[in-house]
Design brief:
Length: 179
């Protein structure tokens, strides 16, 4: 036998898909709207699986609360930007030297706010709203990023992460399956 459980998480975020291209034979128009700065109400569903139960469970649902804290503290109401985005230097001029970013364990960087400590408070507020990644923040890439984070964390419980569903909107989602 095998058992699967899943848990959902919601958060708001902004991004820009600077690499977007459209094929006019398939799209209604040629507007590259995802290249604009925009936001979403995202949803992540984590699917876990086990072939044995421990105390009657795959794992306690509360063992996924760490992911809610990660989303709330790291991504919710933040802007995810690719360090390779052609607008990166325009949007983060104090951080053109990417050595001024702090590398985080989960594969992203944040601006070192001590660099702007003497600037107007609005500058500090702007920079604390950025999450810098080394990939174009598409649904597929974000779901893959989440997969690695969840797999690494859940490995200590010996729990298999089956898939991550990432809803960019109510009607658009990507799914990444574990290897």
């Amino acid at each position: 036998m095998r058992w699967q459980i899943s848990k959902e998480f919601d958060f708001c975020y902004g991004h820009r898909v600077w690499s977007q291209e459209l094929n006019k034979d398939f799209s209604i128009d040629s507007c590259l709207a995802c290249r604009h700065l925009h936001g979403h109400q995202g949803k992540v569903i984590i699917h876990l699986e086990s072939d044995k139960l421990t105390k009657g469970m795959v794992t306690d649902f509360n063992h996924l609360n760490w992911f809610k804290y990660f989303l709330d503290d790291t991504i919710d109401h933040k802007f995810i930007i690719d360090s390779n985005d052609p607008l990166y230097n325009t949007m983060l001029p104090h951080y053109k030297d990417q050595n001024n970013l702090i590398q985080m364990e989960q594969g992203f960087k944040i601006p070192d706010l001590t660099i702007v400590k003497d600037e107007h408070p609005s500058i500090l507020e702007m920079y604390e709203g950025f999450i810098v990644v080394d990939f174009v923040p598409t649904s597929e890439n974000i779901s893959s990023w989440f997969m690695e984070i969840v797999k690494n964390k859940m490995a200590s419980f010996n729990i298999k992460v089956v898939k991550i569903e990432f809803y960019e909107s109510l009607k658009s989602k990507s799914v990444v399956f574990a290897d």
